[in-house]
């Protein structure tokens, strides 16, 4: 079993949110994504709503509707009602993503947010976080732990070269904190080539693995590698994973059992 837990689909004609950090000038279709899964012998996948499409998840959910091997992580407004969240789950959304890159943090202790997190907990939906490790990521995770949801941190926490706040993250030592081995090129470091970025990702993985169970790591291709299309593709992302996780036994568990359990396949 091989499962890709992090990729995106979009069309350039779709409406993007105001002040989007990225606006695509090409299509990354569901058909193209499935072709990658087939070519590299992946059985299942998880598609994540890209930040530039905001809370309109319709293209994503319609695309996966008839494919039993694909699930979704959606983006929603925190004011969403329980019944609406439940409908999203019925349409194969297994969690929500908090896109917090470059954003001022909301008051997660407000009534609106606490109700939102309680609803996610009732529905057993995971919370995926996109935020830099050196920018309040640990505080965010600490706020979420009491709700009992699985907390999934994108791209090995997007650490910087000084590993700022990594020790604080390690100290949380909570069994519901998961990490995506993905987007090695999104770390906050200066690197001359992919090899240097992969080496850094391996360092982060090895440190985290000392403090979190191996079962708490999953793989994500991050296809189509927005903003990095010219120097990364599905193949090189997979090669990078094999260099970050050198043990074949660990690779098999991360690609298979770990992802299967976390995303309830």
TrEMBL record:
<feature type="domain" description="Amidohydrolase-related">
    <location>
        <begin position="3"/>
        <end position="265"/>
    </location>
</feature>
<dbReference type="InterPro" id="IPR032466">
    <property type="entry name" value="Metal_Hydrolase"/>
</dbReference>
<dbReference type="InterPro" id="IPR006680">
    <property type="entry name" value="Amidohydro-rel"/>
</dbReference>
<dbReference type="Pfam" id="PF04909">
    <property type="entry name" value="Amidohydro_2"/>
</dbReference>
<protein>
    <recommendedName>
        <fullName>Amidohydrolase-related domain-containing protein</fullName>
    </recommendedName>
</protein>
<dbReference type="InterPro" id="IPR052358">
    <property type="entry name" value="Aro_Compnd_Degr_Hydrolases"/>
</dbReference>
